[in-house]
Design goal:
The structure holds two protein chains of two kinds. Chain A is an all-beta fold. Chain A is about 0% helix and about 35% strand. Helix content of chain B is about 10%, strand content about 40%. The chains are: A mainly beta, B mainly beta. β1 of chain A pairs antiparallel with β13 of chain B, so a sheet runs across the interface.
Chain lengths: ~45, ~200
């Protein structure tokens, strides 16, 4: 109850990789929130 | 009893980050790093910055949960070499930090000096901060030859009891405001990444 709380932030880094040959690959969130805002997705087994 | 900042404050924090760009008529720069480590709020530089900072193409204030609670940066990075990215940061300045490596391990959490591989590349105007692994040190002077004298565990970081030789020393340019680390991302020369970075204050 000292009144001190850190300011917290949720960071997402969504990345799309474009290879030199022009091909594209959606890497999703590099920080590992691939299932955010997606329904009917199962979490991977730990 | 409880206290909190309000949703309005979150939006104002985002606006303050944007305002710095508005004042300078620039957009923040993305920098990438290739060194190991877990990001801490006390960090002042990347883990082994790779160079080639790239200015954002778009920045803005968006909403994830409450109005205007999210800072968004969009831009691209093209890899100049084969490398594996492990961390990245957003900076208000474009500058490239001075970097070197430890030629000698740090062997206690009270050792008050470090020996960099490239002494003469380092500023001779003191003080300035450096990131060494997860620790922040303040360089207060040098011996004009091979040794930088430091204050340990600065900026609320923890002074490490041991830091191996060859660990990178990265200068702070005092402008990093977001840092993240992630599982290694392997890139070939010429590969481009389109980044959309969202920072949602909670």
């Amino acid at each position: 109850m000292d009144g001190i709380k850190p300011i917290q932030a949720k960071i997402t880094v969504n990345a799309v990789l474009i290879r030199e040959d022009g091909s594209r690959e959606d890497l999703g969130d590099l920080l590992g929130h691939p299932y955010d805002n997606k329904e009917e997705q199962e979490w991977p087994e730990q | 009893m409880a206290g909190t900042i309000t949703a309005a404050a979150r939006a104002q924090i985002v606006y303050a980050l944007l305002e710095e760009s508005i004042i300078t008529n620039t957009k923040p720069w993305l920098a990438v790093g290739t060194g190991p480590g877990t990001s801490e709020a006390s960090d002042v530089a990347l883990f082994t910055e790779s160079g080639n900072r790239t200015e954002g193409t778009s920045i803005g204030q968006t909403t994830t949960v409450t109005s205007g609670d999210t800072y968004q940066w969009i831009g691209t990075y093209t890899s100049p070499a084969v490398q594996t990215l492990t961390n990245l940061g957003l900076f208000q300045n474009q500058g490239m930090p001075v970097q070197g490596t430890l030629v000698q391990q740090v062997s206690s959490n009270t050792q008050n000096f470090i020996k960099p591989s490239n002494y003469y590349n380092w500023p001779t105007s003191y003080p300035f901060d450096v990131q060494v692994s997860t620790e922040v040190m303040t360089v207060t002077s040098g011996n004009n030859y091979d040794t930088l004298y430091v204050l340990r565990g600065q900026n609320n970081s923890t002074a490490l009891t041991s830091i191996p030789a060859a660990t990178y020393i990265t200068q702070s340019d005092t402008s990093m405001f977001v840092k993240t680390d992630f599982t290694g991302l392997s890139l070939s020369t010429g590969d481009t990444i389109q980044f959309t970075i969202n920072v949602q204050f909670q």
